[in-house]
């Protein structure tokens, strides 16, 4: 089935409200670990360095003091960002997906390009994306093109070099926790 018709394109989900708020449970755990490390490990260590450096006299020429103060501002900025992200996040567990024959958030999708290159990507939250390990943001052009698709669908992906046609070859989701294969 090809999704080239305007009617089909309008019927497929292309944009998701609050896209930057979606995160997997794994992504949320990583975000919480980063926040905890900043608050309980790095920040106290830098505060100690700044306190020590402040006691060494002229602060205007004290590199440890100046660097430490700047690093504290960076840490505080990141802590505020992470705190807001955690508060507003919508955690979506891909293992709970019931429509496993369609591409949704958290899906692992294998597709083939017009050049017969096979690629596999996992659709994750914007803060989790890491192309080096095949994780693409829900807001990325490839994820937006794949969303709602079925195996065998051909979809157009807008790239900087123009539109590419790709075919969905496989869709999978993690198994729900507690579900053992018989």
UniProtKB/TrEMBL annotation:
This is Transcription elongation factor GreB. The keyword Nucleus does not apply. It comes from Gluconacetobacter dulcium. Necessary for efficient RNA polymerase transcription elongation past template-encoded arresting sites. The arresting sites in DNA have the property of trapping a certain fraction of elongating RNA polymerases that pass through, resulting in locked ternary complexes. Cleavage of the nascent transcript by cleavage factors such as GreA or GreB allows the resumption of elongation from the new 3'terminus. GreB releases sequences of up to 9 nucleotides in length. Residues 100-173 form the Transcription elongation factor GreA/GreB C-terminal domain. Keywords: DNA-binding, Elongation factor, Protein biosynthesis, Transcription, Transcription regulation. Belongs to the GreA/GreB family. GreB subfamily. The keyword Hydrolase does not apply.
């Amino acid at each position: 089935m090809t999704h080239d018709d305007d009617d089909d394109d309008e019927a497929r989900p292309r944009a998701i409200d609050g896209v930057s708020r979606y995160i997997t449970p794994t992504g949320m755990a990583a975000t919480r670990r980063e926040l905890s490390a900043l608050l309980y490990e790095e920040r106290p260590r830098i505060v100690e360095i700044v306190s020590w450096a402040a006691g060494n006299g002229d602060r205007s020429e004290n590199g440890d003091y100046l660097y430490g103060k700047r690093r504290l501002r960076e840490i505080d900025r990141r802590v505020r960002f992470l705190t807001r992200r955690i508060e507003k996040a919508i955690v979506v567990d891909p293992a709970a997906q019931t429509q496993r024959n369609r591409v949704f958030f958290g899906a692992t999708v294998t597709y083939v390009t017009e050049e017969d290159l096979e690629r596999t990507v996992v659709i994750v939250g914007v803060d989790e994306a890491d192309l080096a390990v095949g994780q693409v943001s829900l807001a990325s052009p490839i994820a937006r093109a794949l969303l709602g698709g079925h195996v065998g669908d051909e979809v157009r992906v807008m790239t900087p070099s123009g539109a590419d046609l790709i075919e969905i070859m496989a869709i999978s989701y993690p198994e729900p926790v507690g579900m053992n294969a018989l």
